[in-house]
Amino acid sequence: MTSHTYTVQRSTLSSRIALTLGAAVLVALVAMPWWATSGNIRWAIELSCYLAIAQMWNLLAGYAGLVSVGQQAFIGLTGYTLFVLAQNFGVNPFLAVPLALVAPALLAVPTYLLLRRLDGPYFSIGTWVVAEAVRLTTTNIDYVNAGAGLTLRVMTNYSQHEREVAFVILCALLLLTTIGGSYLILRSKVGLALTAMRDNPVAAASQGVNVGRMRFLIFVAAAVGTGFAGAIYYMAQLRITPAAGFDPFWASMSIFIIMVGGIGSIEGAIIGALIYFFADRLFGEYGSAYLIVLGLLTLVIALYARGGVWGLIQKLGDHPWFPVRRILIKVEK
């Protein structure tokens, strides 16, 4: 008589291929100063920031159920903190990046405590109000040059090659932190709790998941990850103003990327970021007409393909790039 045993499978052929390609991309990214043009490096920095910000929003909305339209508060605040540390206090700008991450964490804690009793659209509006309040406050502070903004003049102390090497290393760390960190979290026991919260927060709470605590931790983590991307982005731009750093564009970009790519999946964030980045390069010159097309595309996806492009791909076969499920496999002995 044949007996059976069971084993739990986590990785798949598609995930092993994806992880190999991901490692190759990170190596190529770090090596870019030695083989790519400065323009391509700037593109890589921008794409990395878009992807990180979108994934943090995906973690918020796709798992914690917190739809924020005010993540630009953390982008602008971290950018300004970096500029002040480097320009006014003489801190090495590249070392100032991790120091600046304290600022979004400090803002995220009272923001969540203030808004945690709000639900749905009220929470979303609350995050936007906080972002606008931070923007208006920054605009009226003479120490940061008010509405005129700041310029990172200390970057002239470094050669172009030194700057490019530092930027690609920071971008690699950014992707490892936001994408890799999200993947590790979702594969852990915390990931099971987040998945339960995503499906039904009331049922998750009845099974012992501390929904409020989980949402608080995810909100703070997303704020720090978003601020990390903002610091790198504006350091590469060498200039920041309240209008740019706290621009609602960051929220609308995140919503587009995740809605089109697929909410609640790391794969969706990657696909959506690539679609947005190349669409922006190809059609951005058309201005308002291009933005209307993006809005209509988001609406169509929301109505007829709620799983996004990744959801459509999954209908052709279950081939995850970042598997977080546990599959029970029967093994004959």
Instruction: Compute the average pLDDT.
Output: 89
Structural class: mainly alpha
Gap between N and C termini: 10 Å
Rg from Cα:
21 Å
Shape: globular
Number of helices: 15
Strand order of the largest sheet: 1-4
| Count of beta strands | 4
Helix content: over 70%
Unreliable residue stretches: none
Count of distinct structural domains: 1
Secondary-structure element string: EHHHHHHEHHHHEHHHHHE
User: Main sheet, how many strands, which sense, barrel?
Assistant: 2 strands, antiparallel
Strand-residue proportion? under 5%
Question: TL;DR of this structure?
Answer:
By secondary structure, this protein is mainly alpha-helical. Helix content is 70%, strand content 5%. It has one domain (13-247).
How would you describe what is shown here?
The chain has one domain (13-247). The chain has 15 helices and four strands. 70% of the residues lie in helices and 5% in strands. The model has no long low-confidence stretch (mean pLDDT 89). The protein is globular and about 70 Å long.
Key traits:
333 residues; mainly alpha; two-stranded antiparallel ribbon; two-stranded antiparallel sheet; 70% helix; 5% strand
Task: Please render the helix and strand layout as text.
Layout: E1 4-9, H1 13-30, H2 38-64, H3 72-88, H4 93-100, H5 102-115, H6 121-139, E2 150-151, H7 160-187, H8 189-199, H9 201-206, H10 211-237, E3 239-240, H11 242-245, H12 249-261, H13 266-283, H14 288-304, H15 308-314, E4 327-332
Antiparallel strand pairs: 1-4, 2-3
